[in-house]
Specification:
The complex is a heterodimer of chains A (721) and B (331).
Chain A (H helix, E strand, L loop, with lengths): L1 H16 L16 E2 L17 E3 L8 E3 H12 L5 H20 L6 H10 L7 H13 L5 E3 L5 H42 L6 H6 L11 H11 L7 H16 L17 E2 L2 H29 L5 H9 L8 H4 L5 E5 L4 H9 L4 E7 L17 H13 L3 E6 L7 H9 L4 E6 L10 H10 L6 E3 L7 H4 E3 L11 E7 L5 E7 L2 H6 L8 E4 L8 E3 H6 L9 E7 L5 E6 L1 H20 L5 H23 L31 E2 L9 H5 L4 E3 L5 E3 L7 H10 L5 E2 L11 H8 L4
Parallel strand pairs in A: 5-6, 6-7, 7-9, 8-9, 15-16
Antiparallel strand pairs in A: 1-16, 2-3, 2-4, 8-10, 10-11, 12-13, 14-17, 16-17, 18-21, 19-20
Helix pairs in contact in A: 2-3, 3-4, 3-5, 6-9, 6-10, 6-15, 9-10, 23-24
Chain B lengths: L3 H7 L22 H15 L7 E5 L14 E4 L5 H11 L4 E7 H5 L3 H10 L3 E7 L34 H6 L6 E6 L3 H13 L3 E7 L11 H5 L4 E5 L8 H6 L3 E3 L5 H8 L5 E8 L6 H4 L8 H12 L20
Parallel strand pairs in B: 1-2, 1-3, 3-4, 4-6, 5-6, 7-8, 7-9
Antiparallel strand pairs in B: 5-9
Classes of the chains: A alpha/beta (721), B alpha/beta (331).
């Protein structure tokens, strides 16, 4: 008992001070200890997961595919019938083999790795395997570079998607430029063909096959055609303008010409922000010239260029720099930046640089601070994302690399959309821990250390439309819970729901071993709580509980590890940051929850009051007719004495205007109205009313009661009252 | 999305008034419904800002077909029944032009019937107005295919023996039909709305316009003109909206789903009341000029390459040159 109390005091001392009695800290990693929830993932090669990826050409609309998805698709196609099971087994063996080759760092195309993996399956002595491999290979319709989840993967993936997006943009831009060139050329050709030189006898003869020359009198033909052709050749100013436009469009260097063997185009991928900004600044005059040339060419081709109106406009074109919508026509820049370059990035965005920026974080935890310093896990990366969100108008995607395949549509959207984009990616390849990059990245996502989200300004005007959390498991919780099954001392199967916390993530990195102290199995006591429960309990003493992690050693034995207070503080900070991000994403938003609670209370109160009041019978609702007429509005009040025409109903038949063009006239819609009742007689008004086939002329009362035949006219006019 | 430059350039565009589209002074009879159609079309041109040099009216023969003369745009007054093939040729050669067709019940439904059927099927982007006065007017009163049974004319002195052909029902029965509407010249507001919708539709827009002929059949539509209840206005979410002024006068209305071809066919068969509005609309029918588009820019290099590929299939031995090699008999 006393020994237990002494041990408990030592545990408390470690938790509070981080110091343990006697001997250096035992390395968790060296002891094979890893968080219990990661115990089943020791050998990545045996798992089916989202990597490796195959980078596709985009021809069929697919730009990237995981090996897993590819094999699933192949099996859906061919693994049918009695040999389906056999095919499936062999296919999965092949898939595992290819995955293992990729994990070993072998590079190459899918076809290359496929052949190599197939060779290692020893198919030559097994006809069933040979048949399976042959059929799988026949069903394979794609090929591309294979990349695994490593330090280089984020850049390779984003570069691939960016290149495809830029190629699509370039094709569209070239189509526009080529069309303009052809149309401008046709203007010059047309003018030449109508000119004296174009209609000369020699030129006409050249257009006819030599075998037919004897049948034509080219000089006479030339004379006749010259007489009949238009006498207005292309103005010299317009000719020079068109020739200038053709020169600019032909010599542009922004979009390469696939047909030309010596196509020279600018580079758009840069390793840092300053290089990209400088390149953009240098190219800006040329961009402005091309943008202007295209606008002028469009008007020329359409026959709409008017020197009196447009010369002055284009003289000032681009004086204040290129507008963002015009700059979006040009290829986007891809910049590989680092988090500290944020100020330069923001300046570049403000200058209109159409950039897609990859900020890659390799080591989320960084090296521990020197004695006593405060830990600041990946502060720069987190600040970058938060700042980018605050700028507005910037597409921001944050994710660990493990989740990038699932976010491929969002990646593509950020790369294709106009405007700047920042991709903040944690590769998991930083620390020299025992975890492969994929697992480290996945653990960071689970532990809320590097949550995933997308902010897309193009989605709408408010945060609810623009901001979304992506890939974060169980976002409504502080820490995700997963089932963990083990065998207890009585060899009974026990299933527990364990959280995966920030402390679990840090426990995978042996640089932070000093924050953990394993508890010997025979010294466990009732004061050990999980980190999640410890953090959730805000009471000051927490009943003496100590925060611990469940870990599994190299022999698959479960044990507990105490976490020191410094790390607990960081875990709390991580949790709070996750909660803030979660609220931004609309999950457990405190403002919304308060509003809902308030509405609920008000509704409950209103219901209570209604239940106490005498019941009032509800009135029956009249059913609206199926085709109710559109609502009508009353005509403006007018005097019944005044002559008028229901002008909107006039059919422009000319009957009334032919009777008296001074009394009746057409408005801007060629519909009749009364200009001046005094410009004619009452008889003319009545005759016009009688002639009007749609009966929209109303003569009113006569202005002159002494007009001859007034009584008869009044009788006739009564029909049109 | 327009670029900022495109938006700014729009400020410099030329704006035309209605008079800018007025060609010659119309020589139609006083009270002729063609005048109302002309006014509606000129309004359309003004309101849509159509460039006169990019607009063309094509017609055949008949009173209706005088139309191009009265528009200050490009025009083609063609031969009897051939307005549609000429318009289709114009559209294939110059897909950038706005093409309108003015045809009559004789020009379209009699001599031009074959072209009419296939023009519907081709679904080229143009606006076709059938000026249906149910009589041959220019040639001074003969029965036309749409003349009602019993009408007495120079060629049917005892009254026409057959029921009139229904152009709406015919059009709705042809494959690829994409837009069918009916208007009447004595309701100019609806006429304008229908012609506008027809112009905006990307495809073959067929509008039958019941049109008065005050000279030869002055009483033909009198009962319908005098009694608004005998006109049925069609409206709906994908059709036309009826304005308050119209609603006050024409209370006989029906909500109609323009995508429902069966309902459209049922409405097309109605003669009393006369349905007015859009009967059928389908934006998804492909237009022929897009189907035939090469998909590739016809640059001089492209054309040269195609010609050379064809020429390379033949070898031409010059006259008086070396002897041609013996022909190898084909297997």
């Amino acid at each position: 008992m006393a020994a237990m109390e002494s041990e408990h005091r030592a545990q408390i001392a470690f938790h509070l001070s981080g110091r343990r009695g006697g001997g250096p800290a035992q390395s968790l990693v060296a002891a094979g200890l890893r968080p219990a929830l990661m115990a089943g993932h020791r050998d990545l090669a045996k798992l089916r997961y989202d990597f490796p990826l195959i980078l596709l050409s985009g021809k069929d609309g697919e730009t990237v595919k995981s090996l897993t998805d590819l094999f699933d698709q192949l099996l859906d196609t061919i693994a049918k019938g009695s040999d389906g099971e056999r095919l499936r087994r062999h296919a999965l063996r092949l898939e595992l083999e290819i995955r293992a080759l990729a994990q070993q760092g072998l590079s190459g195309t899918l076809a290359g790795l496929w052949d190599r993996a197939a060779g290692s399956l020893h198919a030559h002595d097994d006809t069933a395997v040979q048949d399976s491999l042959r059929r799988l290979r026949a069903a394979l319709r794609v090929d591309g570079e294979v990349i695994d989840c490593d330090r280089a993967m984020p850049y390779r993936l984003i570069h691939h998607l960016w290149a495809l997006a830029n190629a699509t943009k370039a094709r569209a831009a070239r189509a526009i430029i080529d069309r303009l060139l052809v149309k401008l050329g046709e203007i010059l050709v047309s003018d030449f063909l109508h000119s004296d030189l174009g209609l000369s006898a020699e030129r006409l003869a050249a257009g006819i096959g030599s075998a037919q020359h004897a049948h034509f009198d080219f000089p006479t033909l030339s004379t006749l055609l010259k007489g009949a052709s238009p006498k207005t050749p292309l103005a010299e100013g317009r000719r020079r303008r068109i020739e200038g436009l053709i020169a600019i469009l032909k010599d542009q260097r922004f979009f390469g010409d696939p047909a030309a063997k010596t196509s020279i185009a600018y580079e758009y991928a840069f390793e840092d922000c300053a290089q990209a900004a400088e390149a953009f600044r240098q190219r800006l005059p040329e961009m402005t010239a091309l943008s202007k040339a295209m606008a002028v060419a469009g008007l020329e081709v359409d026959g709409r260029y008017n020197e009196a109106r447009h010369d002055a406009f284009f003289a000032e074109y681009g004086a204040g720099g290129l507008l963002p919508e015009d700059a979006a026509f040009f290829p986007d820049y891809l910049i590989r930046a680092r988090a500290p370059e944020l100020p330069q990035l923001l300046a570049a965005f403000a200058a209109g640089l159409p950039a897609k920026v990859l900020v890659q974080v390799d080591d989320l935890l960084d090296d521990p601070p020197k004695a006593g310093g405060r830990v600041a896990f990946a502060l720069a990366a987190k600040q970058l994302a938060a700042t980018a969100l605050g700028i507005g108008g910037v597409f921001v995607l944050q994710s660990p690399s493990s989740n990038l395949y699932r976010l491929r549509d969002s990646l593509a959207k950020g790369l294709v959309g106009g405007g700047p984009a920042i991709f903040n990616i944690y590769s998991g390849a930083g620390a020299d821990g025992a975890l492969p990059p994929y697992l480290a990245a996945a653990a960071a996502l689970e532990a809320r250390a590097f949550p995933g989200f997308v902010h897309d300004p193009a989605c709408g005007p408010d945060l609810a439309s623009r901001f979304a959390l992506h890939g974060n498991p169980q976002p409504e919780r502080d820490w995700p819970l997963h089932d963990f099954a083990y065998e207890d001392a009585a060899q009974q199967r026990v299933v527990e729901r364990l959280p995966f916390t920030f402390a679990d993530f840090v426990a995978c990195d042996d640089r932070y071993d000093g924050h953990f102290a394993p508890v010997e199995p025979n010294k466990a006591n009732g004061h050990l709580a999980s980190v999640a429960d410890f953090l959730a309990d805000d009471t000051s003493d927490r009943g003496g509980a100590l925060p611990t992690l469940a870990m599994v050693d190299g022999a698959d034995r479960l044990c507990r590890v105490i976490v020191d207070d410094r790390l607990i503080r960081e875990a709390r900070l991580c949790r709070d940051m996750w909660r803030s991000l979660r609220e931004l994403g609309g999950v457990r938003n405190s403002h919304a929850e308060r509003q809902v609670a308030k509405e609920r209370a008000a509704w409950a109160e209103a219901t209570r009051q209604t239940a106490d009041a005498p019941k009032i019978a509800a009135a029956a609702e009249a059913k609206a007719p199926a085709s109710s007429p559109a609502p009508a509005i009353a005509e403006p009040e007018r005097s019944s004495d005044e002559a008028y025409i229901e002008t909107p109903r006039c059919t422009t038949c000319n009957e009334c205007t032919q009777i008296n063009a001074k009394m009746f006239a057409y408005n801007e819609n060629k519909q009749a109205y009364i200009v001046n009742s005094d410009a004619g007689t009452y008889r003319q008004l009545v005759e016009a009313a009688e002639s009007c086939q749609v009966a929209i002329i109303h003569p009113g009362k006569p202005r002159d009661p002494d007009e001859p035949g007034i009584d008869e006219l009044l009788k006739r006019a009564a029909a049109f009252a | 999305m327009s670029t900022a430059t495109e938006c700014l350039l729009k400020l410099y565009d030329e704006h035309h008034q209605l008079e800018d589209y007025q060609g010659g002074v119309p020589r139609w009879c006083s009270g002729c419904g063609d005048n109302a159609i002309l006014a509606a079309v000129q309004r359309l041109c003004r309101d849509q800002g159509l460039r006169p040099e990019k607009t063309v009216f094509v017609s055949g023969i008949g009173c209706s077909s005088r139309f191009p003369h009265y528009m200050k745009t490009y025009g083609f007054h063609g031969i009897h029944g051939r307005a549609l093939p000429i318009a289709e040729g114009i559209k294939m050669a110059r897909p950038d032009l706005d093409v309108f067709v003015n045809t009559g019940d004789g020009d379209c439904c009699s001599i031009g019937a074959a072209h009419w059927i296939h023009a519907i099927r081709y679904n080229m982007n143009m606006t076709v107005m059938l000026h249906d006065n149910q009589i041959y007017g220019l040639t001074k009163m003969q029965a036309s295919p749409t003349s009602p049974k019993g009408i007495k004319s120079n060629t049917t002195p005892r009254g026409a023996y057959l029921d009139g052909l229904n152009p709406l029902a015919v059009t709705l029965g042809v494959q690829n039909v994409s837009f069918v509407a009916q208007a009447v010249d004595w309701i100019p507001e609806m006429l304008y709305d229908i012609v506008s919708a027809a112009y905006r539709h990307k495809g073959f827009s067929f509008v039958r316009i019941l049109q008065r002929c005050p000279e030869w059949v002055p009483k033909m539509f009198e009962p319908w003109i005098q009694d608004p209840q005998r006109t049925l206005l069609l409206h709906g979410d994908n059709g036309l909206e009826i304005g308050p002024a119209m609603a006050r006068i024409y209370r006989n209305q029906r909500k109609h789903d323009c995508s429902d071809i069966h309902a459209a066919r049922e409405i097309a068969s109605m003669t009393d009341p006369i349905p007015v509005g859009i009967l059928y609309r389908d934006e998804n029918v492909p237009v022929y000029e897009n189907l035939r588009h090469a998909g590739q820019l016809r640059s001089p290099a492209f054309v040269r390459k195609g010609l050379e590929a064809e020429f390379d299939k033949f070898t031409v031995w010059p006259e008086g040159g070396a002897e041609a090699p013996p022909q190898v008999a084909s297997a």
